[in-house]
Amino acid sequence: MEQKKTVIVTGFEPFGEHAVNASWVAVQELEKLGLGHEINLHVAEVPVEYQAVQSLLPSLWKQQLPQLVVHVGVSGMATTVTLEQCGHNQGYMRLDNCSFCPESRCCMEGGPDCIQSVIDMDAVCKRVNSSGLGVSVSVSKDAGRYLCDYTYYMSLFLGEGRSAFVHVPPLGKPYSAEQLAQALRAIILEMLELMEHNKGKKHCLHDQ
Question: What is the pTM of this model?
């Protein structure tokens, strides 16, 4: 019998003007929906603190041995559900919920400037947008140099690229928590399918 795949999905706690963080609300809705019988879904709320992320992420990757980790964050500027292609190492100057920011301004001293996800976000975006879901999806290459970007970079590093980041708009602008959860479910299932499909041809970029 094939072992169930494990997928971890995280949202963030409230911060700044986001007294309710749409990302965690949407992830809790997703937990109710589930990802089908073949997939173990674990959800976690991530503190908006650099040091907490440093300790939480390695334990998530080690304990659960996930196929994929998807981090969800809220962006006050987003009007679509936005797939982030890469995480960045440097430029972290904004203070977190503990009024802390890394002295080095980076995630990992000596780490690569940018780490790409193994998932082709353009392909995921196209598939979900053409599925008639009613939620608009777009792709970005800048996750914003705050806890979202920081978390994504760490996760990409720990998981050797088997991570994804999704920015959602605040609740009701324009989507409800249920709509966001439906979109996350569709996005994650597409990501898993693409990863499965690309297993044998890691180094071949001709057919993208």
Answer: 0.94
Please answer whether residues 74 and 22 qualify as being in contact, where contact means their C-beta atoms are separated by less than 8 angstroms. yes
Q: Under DSSP, is residue 127 helix (H, G, I), strand (E, B) or coil? A: helix
CA distance 196 to 144: 29
Selected catalytic residue, list 98, 125, 148, 204: 148
Give residue limits of the domains in the chain.
5-200
Concerning whether 86 is annotated as a catalytic residue, the answer is no
Phi, psi of 162 (to 5 degrees): -85, 50
Helix (H, G, I), strand (E, B) or coil at 89: coil
Q: Is 5-200 in CATH node 3.40.50.1000?
A: no
pLDDT tens, the chain, 208 aa long: 567 899 999 999 999 999 999 999 999 999 999 999 999 999 999 999 999 999 999 999 999 999 999 999 999 999 999 999 999 999 999 999 999 999 999 999 999 999 999 999 999 999 999 999 999 999 999 999 999 999 999 999 999 999 999 999 999 999 999 999 999 999 999 999 999 988 765 544 433 3
**Which are the contacts of 117, defined by CB distance < 8 A and separation ≥ 6?**
84, 85, 86, 156, 161, 162, 163, 164, 165
Nearest Cα neighbor of 96 from 52, 162, 65 is: 52
CA–CA gap between residue 97 and residue 9 (Å, rounded): 21
Location of structure tokens 């072992």: 3
